Structures are given as structure tokens and as C-alpha cells.
Amino acid sequence: MRNFVSVHDVTNIDALVQKALAYKVNPFVDKSLGINKRIGCLFLNPSMRTRLSTQIAAQNLGMEAIIFNVGNEGWMLEFEEEAIMSGTSVEHVKDAAPIFGKYFDVLAIRTFPSLKNKDDDYSELYIKQFIKYAGIPVVSLESSTLHPLQSLTDIVTIQECLLNSPLTAGSKPKIVLTWAPHVKPLPQCVANSFSQWITTWNNADFVITHPEDYELSEEYTKGATITHDQNEALKDADFVYIKNWSTFNDYGKMYESDPKWMMTNKKLELTNNAKVMHCLPVRRNVEVSDEILDGANSIVTLQASNRVWAAQTVLAEILKQNG
Ligand code: CP
């Protein structure tokens, strides 16, 4: 693995999941792997879980992690080729990225979409420019369209739950990704990425449910069953993943925030006593009710704690394969 920006960088999801679960049992087994190595974590946008779990993962491997909140502490970067920099951006990524490449052995970047221009966001210019100019492996800490470390974590968490409570032999779990209301338009990253990873993993009966007009890009949903009937989708689900996203076609809008899409205990009754997932942060009693988040079916804390093992697995693979 050279970079980790999408599921396409992974040859065997199950092998990564097994490694992550092994790190959970024995976090320091590869403590010498990252000795004298340094990871730079650049945040153009806020984070809690991604920042801390990546830092802990690096430390578990003996790496030094340096966090740089570029978004509010660094010079404003320009990403367009041949830009005439007479506006607000101060430094071109062409000049900054090679320096990061000298300071660090691995570069990790979080950058959100603008939600203003679909073509710009879906071009993934920011992360591609870092890959082009840094000269070292690049890890996405969430980009304009995808959140691969979150998705790997999600499959690790699903697999962990299945190991502790196996389904009938030979049957696949039913996993439902459901849209939920929110107070503002959010990126499609987590939903795109979860769908991309689950359909590639191909070990589940996967259903996506959302209101009309909230279709995700078909690039990520091929292989999923899509319905606008949330109750129908939830029937017999083993895992329910709750997430808001803004519109993809008429890009970046929030047409509605219908509270009837909020996940509640009443809806949980339709499922097969489903485990409830959310990447966090979550808007309580908007996306998901208190009763769900505080109830026995919620695995959101387990999910967030597993971010460490997913990040550690990815960093270990990169260190092993890039010397
Ligand atoms: N799920 C997630 O990426 O959380 P943070 O935004 O806190 O990193």
C-alpha cells in the first residue's frame, strides 16, 4: 500500500480487518516498526476522533505524530495549477508539499468539500495535489468525497460484533445505511465511503434508504439496494448505520429535515435487534434519539474506539511496504 485514500488502495479488506482486530488484542506488538519515523497530520478542518486515534495509532507503532492545524494556524494554501496568487491564498501546495515530504515519512490530511461546486469537490484536487507533490505516502483523514479510515473502522466493528454474536451459518448480515435529518447540509463522504467499502467487501445484504432527491453518486452505491421507504429498509436489519448527507445531484443542498427520518426505539423494533452505528459527532434527538444512543443497541463508542486499530493497521501496512 503506497497511499490510503479509498478502498481501491486495499487488496484484501478481510486481511486488514483481521490485522486491526489483532492490534486491538496486542497494541504494541509492532512498537519497533515506526521507530525514527514521523507522520505529519495536516488538518484543514476540525476533528476529534480522527486526530486522536491517528496520533495514538502512530505512537503504538513507535512513530512520532506531529499535528498541524493548517486550517487555522498555517498559511492559506493554493491548490490550482498555474494560479495567479493575487487573492487570499499565500502558499502553493507545490511549494509546501515537498517540504512536508522532507519533514515527514508519511503525510495524513483532512480536508472537507466546499459543497458549492460538485465538480471541484469530486475532483479531489487537494488530496491529489498532496500525493503529486509530497513524494511520500499520503493517508486520507477524510477528503472531499470519502472517509476511508472511518469505513475500515466500520467493517472492523461489524466483524467484531459478528464474531461475538455469529449469525446463522452461511447467512450474510443485513446492513442498512439510513439518511437522517440534520440542521445543516453535510458532506456525502461518510455515506459514499461506507457504501463503497461495504459493496466491495461483498459480505452483506446492503440496503441504503433516504428521502427522494438524496441519491448518492452511483459510483459508490453500485451493488446496494436503494429504497425511499425507511421502514421497509429497516425490516430484519442486523446493523443500522445512521448518517445525514446533503444532496448530490442538485449539489450540497438540504431540502428537508423531516423528523420522521430520525432513528428511534420504535423503528428499532422493525429490525433484528440491530446494532446501531454512527461515525460521530451526532446531533442527539435530531439524527438519533437519546433512547437509542444511550441504549443497549448503540455501538457508537465501540466504533469510535476502533478508529485506533484501523489507523494503526493502515500505518503499519504503509511502513512495511515503503521502508
Ligand atoms: N468520525 C470522525 O471522523 O470524527 P471526527 O470528525 O471527530 O474526526
What does this structure look like?
With 323 residues, this protein is an alpha/beta fold. The protein folds into two domains: 7-146 and 306-322, 3-Layer(aba) Sandwich (Rossmann fold); 150-304, Aspartate/ornithine carbamoyltransferase (Rossmann fold, 3-Layer(aba) Sandwich). It is built from 14 helices and eleven strands. The strands form three sheets. It has a five-stranded parallel sheet. The chain binds phosphoric acid mono(formamide)ester (CP).
Query: What is the correct CATH architecture of the largest domain?
Result: 3-Layer(aba) Sandwich
Measure the end-to-end span: 11 Å
Q: Indicate the CATH class of the largest domain.
A: Alpha Beta
CATH superfamily of the largest domain: Aspartate/ornithine carbamoyltransferase
Give the structural class.
Answer: alpha/beta
Read across the widest sheet, the strand sequence of neighbours is: 9-8-7-10-11
- Whole-number radius of gyration? 20 Å
**Element string (H = helix, E = strand):** HEHEHEEHEHHEHEHEHEHEHEHHH
User: According to CATH, what is the topology of the largest domain?
Assistant: Rossmann fold
Q: What count of helical segments does DSSP give?
A: 14
Average pLDDT over all residues: 96
Helix amount: 25-40%
- The dominant shape is globular
Task: Outline the low-pLDDT stretches.
Answer: none
Number of domains: 2
